């Protein structure tokens, strides 16, 4: 059967294409007789407007969604900009979708795939503790970007881009130990966090052990559930509580720079100095870590490169070139003004 | 003419609905004879699959888009969270679209309206200097949120939510004058900015004049075009240049808190103190303004309330309840540690 087009129908009927279109689409502005005639010709010629093809063209538009947990976290800002640039280069369009902490991102993704006919997904940040069965429900390629996973994910069904959160965390805590600190507090994610929080906590504990330092339970502090996670305010509240507990320590390591900013303010607010009274170290390498007073010692994650690699891997998968890929980037220890050798024995 | 449904066609043909659907959609899994018969019945009964209605149902899904200029600006983070919450409450879905500085947001919006069948749009941040003719091309309701406009916008065709950028800017500069400062530098947007940059600059000049202070051209400094606008780095570079120019001043007012953070770091880097050597004031009331060391004197914008009002106005317009609305919020002068009475006469 030859393919008949709307143009052919219009020619057969002796009307314009727009009139045929009006007939097909039940438009009120058409003479009933003309419409009946057109529909008859359409039927006789087995012409069927290809709805699926038309929908595809009109609404599909090659869309990639980035699902982000923690949209207020400045760590993601530069990544998002890079995602957008790279996705545009590929002539795809780009949806940024915030996922609430209480939402299941896989369900959000499945819904979006259906609604927006996505071609691919980037999961950015947050926990990621879904069963392999759940992940298998995602029928489009996806990449986990800067999501540490401690669980037994089937590495053949998903791709990932991150730093080695354990190793980098070890690196900065080891640096504090080498400065002479042995009473090092940590601010980390609650223990039910199976993601970067627990990886970075493990790095901390491992570095202490290797430096012959006993782990003190009272120096392991957790972000408050009732406050936004990784927020400056959360770091402030936890540090203030730690300072007021009378616990003896000379350094704080917080697992994000945002938390560290809050920690610093808490230290200043009780009239103590950094680094003379307390050394403070963070993680991420945000701009603000550099511009804060004092500048913050931190682990810089190469966010632009990580974002570029995320998109590269995603498009490899979309084009069917490869299956799952896993890329681990090196972090860099940036030494700021917020840490120094231990000056006093508390 | 009675409305005929796919169910009626199926009954008339003695087949299932899915078979009728396969016929309509040109599906390969259907007997050619059955298909011809169905199409004949369809034609005879003037049954026309209502594509537009079906598209609506499948892909429309009541979507609101927020078009944001300056996604890395933390000022917008809390607004976005509020937008999302309020839009979800209305059972609408939410697309966040970043607009590049070089892009025309109206064109981006028109494209999105077409692709995603938007029900409404929020324009967030940035310049907004489009002709009324251009604005009239937007066929869905929209609200300008925290976009100052100096141009002669037809206030009957668009709604807006913002603070009075002129008045609030006047307020904080007047505060600096009352502290005894008369040599006050400003960091603002380039002169071609017809938005908050020029409004806040006008507020600065007006406050100086009313305090009997002559405006010095050399103290009016502009963000660098080649750096990201309103970025910390931009504030740093401009302030560093100002400090090294040898220009005589005792206070800096930057039109955003992000710029102020950079300004502070530049002052520290040349070995000067805040506020003893320089008073520093910002605008926006970001969290970081409170947590920075020293805390920053600024104008707090009530971002959550502004975001809520934005969505309220948008949905009023979507429901056809009202035409254009314009809501101006009060800012609040927050006095931090970064400003003080003038201590020396330079």
From TrEMBL, chains A, B:
<keyword id="KW-0805">Transcription regulation</keyword>
<keyword id="KW-0238">DNA-binding</keyword>
<dbReference type="InterPro" id="IPR010982">
    <property type="entry name" value="Lambda_DNA-bd_dom_sf"/>
</dbReference>
<dbReference type="Pfam" id="PF13377">
    <property type="entry name" value="Peripla_BP_3"/>
</dbReference>
<dbReference type="GO" id="GO:0003677">
    <property type="term" value="F:DNA binding"/>
</dbReference>
<dbReference type="Pfam" id="PF00356">
    <property type="entry name" value="LacI"/>
</dbReference>
<dbReference type="InterPro" id="IPR028082">
    <property type="entry name" value="Peripla_BP_I"/>
</dbReference>
<dbReference type="InterPro" id="IPR046335">
    <property type="entry name" value="LacI/GalR-like_sensor"/>
</dbReference>
<dbReference type="InterPro" id="IPR000843">
    <property type="entry name" value="HTH_LacI"/>
</dbReference>
<keyword id="KW-0804">Transcription</keyword>
<feature type="domain" description="HTH lacI-type">
    <location>
        <begin position="4"/>
        <end position="58"/>
    </location>
</feature>
<protein>
    <submittedName>
        <fullName>LacI family DNA-binding transcriptional regulator</fullName>
    </submittedName>
</protein>
């Amino acid at each position: 059967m030859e393919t008949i087009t709307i143009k052919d129908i219009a020619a057969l009927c002796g009307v314009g294409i727009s009139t045929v279109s009006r007939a097909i689409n039940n438009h009120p502005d058409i003479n009933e007789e003309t419409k009946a005639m057109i529909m008859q010709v359409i039927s006789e010629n087995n012409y069927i407007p290809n709805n699926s093809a038309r929908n595809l063209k009109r609404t599909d538009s090659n869309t990639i969604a980035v699902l982000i947990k923690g949209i207020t976290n400045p760590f993601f800002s530069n990544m998002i900009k890079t995602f957008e640039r790279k996705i545009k280069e590929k002539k795809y369009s780009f949806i940024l979708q915030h996922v609430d902490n209480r939402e299941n991102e896989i369900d959000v993704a499945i819904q979006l795939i259906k609604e927006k006919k996505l071609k691919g997904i980037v999961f950015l940040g947050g926990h990621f503790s879904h069963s392999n069965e759940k992940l298998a429900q995602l029928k489009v390629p996806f990449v986990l970007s800067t999501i540490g996973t401690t669980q037994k994910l089937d590495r053949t069904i998903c791709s990932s881009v991150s730093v080695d959160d354990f190793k980098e965390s070890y690196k900065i805590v080891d640096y504090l130990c080498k400065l002479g600190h042995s009473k090092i507090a940590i601010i980390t994610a609650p223990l039910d966090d199976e993601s970067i929080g627990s990886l970075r906590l493990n790095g901390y504990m491992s570095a202490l052990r290797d430096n012959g330092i006993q782990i003190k339970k009272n120096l392991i502090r957790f972000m408050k559930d009732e406050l936004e996670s990784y927020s400056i305010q959360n770091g402030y509240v936890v540090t203030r509580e730690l300072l007021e507990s009378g616990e003896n320590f000379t350094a704080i390591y917080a697992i994000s720079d945002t938390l560290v900013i809050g920690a610093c303010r808490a230290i200043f607010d009780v009239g103590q100095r950094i680094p003379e009274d307390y050394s403070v170290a963070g993680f991420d390498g945000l701009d603000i870590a550099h511009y804060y007073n004092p500048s913050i010692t931190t682990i810089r994650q190469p966010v632009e490169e990580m974002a570029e690699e995320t998109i590269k891997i995603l498009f490899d998968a979309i084009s069917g070139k490869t299956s799952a890929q896993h890329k681990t980037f090196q972090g860099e220890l940036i030494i700021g003004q917020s840490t120094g050798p231990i000056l006093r024995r508390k």
